[in-house]
Amino acid sequence: MNVRDPLPGVIYPREEQLRAWVEAGALPTRTLVEALSASFAAHSESTALATPSGDVSYAELDSITDRIAAGLLGLGLVPLERVLFQAGNSPELIYAVLGCLKAGLIPVCTLAAHRESEIGYLGRHVDASAHIVDGDDPKFDLEAFAAGMRAEIPTIRHIVSLRGPGQTGTIRLAALIGGIDREEARATVAGVPRDPFQVAVFQLSGGTTGVPKVIPRMQNDYLLNAELTIETLGYRPDDVMFMPMPMIHNASMICFWLPTLLAGATFAIPADMTPSSWADSFARSRPTFVGLIRALMPRLEATFELLPSALASVRAFWAPDAAQVLRSRYGKPAYAMFGMSEGMNLYCREGDPDEALDWTVGRPLSPFDEVRLVEPGTEREVAPGEIGEMICRGPYTLRGYYNAPERNLEAFTSEGFYKPGDLMVERVIAGERYYSFAGRTKDVVDRGAEKINCEEVENAVSTHPAVAGCAVVGMPDPVLGERVCAFVVLRTGALLPQVPEMQAHLRSLGLAKFKWPERIEAIEELPLTKVGKIDKAALRSNIVALLERSRSAA
Questions:
Q1: Most-buried pick from 169, 184, 444, 487 (CB within 10 A)?
Q2: Are 270 and 298 in contact (CB under 8 A)?
């Protein structure tokens, strides 16, 4: 029941807990890879991916990913080594992730937007052996970036480019698999050891405590998470899924494209994030299930304006923060949810009462999920109907961040409940317990579903020579939810840095672009609470008032 070759730094579930879940049927005893391979065989003639360059069948997907797995192992990589992923949405990204899984390698799900600060830390932290990047990004040369990062990450032995011509020292994906025989590749993959209790992927935290923390997701817990999504949302083999958010993100991976491939359905991939590309994808593949966040709704509207017939094929929407709006606007079922890369998912479902659909983020996926609401900073449960800090545990929820003992002491209760820092209210509706989201306990900006740690940005902004002190808060934004606003105390005689200047400074530090402040306000001194901490509530009120005055004057 225990993992055969435990990785140092990974906290695995206790054997008695695993045994209880397995015996109760709450946790699979096969790997994610075995389940995917079974689906690929069962749906071999069906379309797995609908792409701008044509459809890809399950048989083709199986063959391509077998050859990628064999190619990666042929480079000298061995099972359980870690592979950094830094790429945008494309069929090749899915090929490479699946190839790594088949090879027993562990994908590390970094973002294409990450830069020196994040990639250097993460690569060293996980002892990454390979770095997989896009080779044709017109805005940033990721191949050159990866080559430069090799000096910072001494364990990196190989750089693989998914697309593009390739540079010296980079292996093109097409060249990697070009001469590999399909049957030989299949035999190689069949020889890779499988362990359902071993790590499948390293996902990343939202970065609410500095640089992102590494989240080990196990083969069978990730499979369970995906299978429960299929069951809860009713994914079918005749579905076509459209989810344009970053495919390396946990949300897209565990809520959409992995469940799609396990269900034998089709995953549609647009050429880019423009409404015209979305319309092309709708015209080609007629999606039946659409997943997106509120920040992407204007693009969806523009897509439907370009192709009014596109809405006809849609049977439902998945929308964590926009379900009620989509349901009223388009007259289609739309399901809210709450999720985290650490595991716990809450979903609304077909047949839920209107009150639950309109005002909650749903209820847990598994009957073995445990959710409690406690007084923030304590383990004392709040009274029914009161706002409390959510704590949770269950068969697919994190037991501990990778190689982060100090963080783990803070992140878990004495009983092993994970503390994500979210505030919830419990509602009993038609005899079921649902949860409504009520905010965050942590100091973050939620910019278009990217959680930005304020302390990390404050530390970076404070290195500017004009800045004596800094506090970062989220300012309301109708599209992204929040944007980053920096309040700065200037050094004597210094001029206020304008946004482009500050962004150039943060670029030089290697801070990811989505974290850069989009507004900077000078302030004589930072307000403090009675206990001597920076009064972020006062600053948030300040920026709201400034925005209101600007709108009134316009």
A1: 487
A2: no
Residues of the chain with CATH 3.40.50.980: 15-269
Q: Are 391 and 418 in contact (CB under 8 A)?
A: yes
Least-confidence region, from 22-26, 74-78, 535-539: 535-539
Of the pLDDT bands very low, low, confident and very high (cuts 50, 70, 90), residue 537 is confident
Distance (Å, rounded) from C-alpha 216 to C-alpha 343?
10
Rounded Cα distance, 254 and 278, in Å: 22
What is the rounded average pLDDT of the residues 483-502?
A: 93
- Sequence-distant (≥ 6) Cβ neighbours of residue 107 within 8 angstroms: 83, 85, 97, 100, 101, 201, 202
User: For residue 532, what is the DSSP state?
Assistant: S
Q: Write out the residue limits of the CATH 2.30.38.10 domain(s) in the chain.
A: 336-440
Task: Give residue-wise pLDDT tens across range 54-108.
Answer: 999 999 999 999 999 999 999 999 999 999 999 999 999 999 999 999 999 999 9
Find tokens 């949770």 and name the residue.
Answer: 392
Tell me the C-alpha distance between 299 and 398, whole Å: 34
Cβ atoms 253, 92 nearer than 8 A: no
Residue 102 vs residues 59, 60, 171, 222, 428: alpha-carbon distances, Å: 15, 15, 19, 15, 43
Chain position carrying tokens 């480019």: 161
The two tokens of residue 207 are 């970065």
**Is 81:104 a contact under the CB 8 Å cutoff?**
no
Question: What pLDDT, on a 0 to 100 scale, did the predictor assign at position 462?
Answer: 85
Sort residue 331 into left (φ over 0), alpha (ψ -120 to 50) or beta: left
**Burial label, 166 (beta-carbon count in 10 A; 0-12, 13-18, 19+):** middle
Q: Answer for the pair 413, 227: CB distance below 8 angstroms, yes or no.
A: no
φ, ψ of residue 118 in degrees (nearest 5): -75, -45
Reported confidence tier of residue 524, pLDDT bands at 50, 70, 90: confident
| 520, β-bridge pairs | 486
- Dmax over CA atoms of the chain, in Å, equals 71
**pLDDT score of 529:** 65
**Cα separation of 242 and 282, whole Å?**
9
CA distance 389 to 380: 10
Residue 308 is given by DSSP the state G
| Predicted pLDDT at 233 | 96
Within 10 angstroms of residue 179's Cβ, the number of other Cβ atoms is: 8
Phi, psi of 275 (to 5 degrees): -55, -35
Cα 25 from chain centroid (whole Å):
27
CATH 3.30.300.30 maps onto the chain at: 444-553
Q: What superfamily would CATH give domain 444-553?
A: ANL, C-terminal domain (3.30.300.30)
Whole-model pTM: value is: 0.85
Percentage of the residues of the chain whose pLDDT score is greater than 90: 78
CATH code assigned to 15-269:
3.40.50.980
Residue 217 phi, psi (nearest 5) = -110, 125
| Correct CATH for 336-440 of 3.40.50.880, 1.25.40.10, 2.30.38.10, 1.20.58.1560 | 2.30.38.10
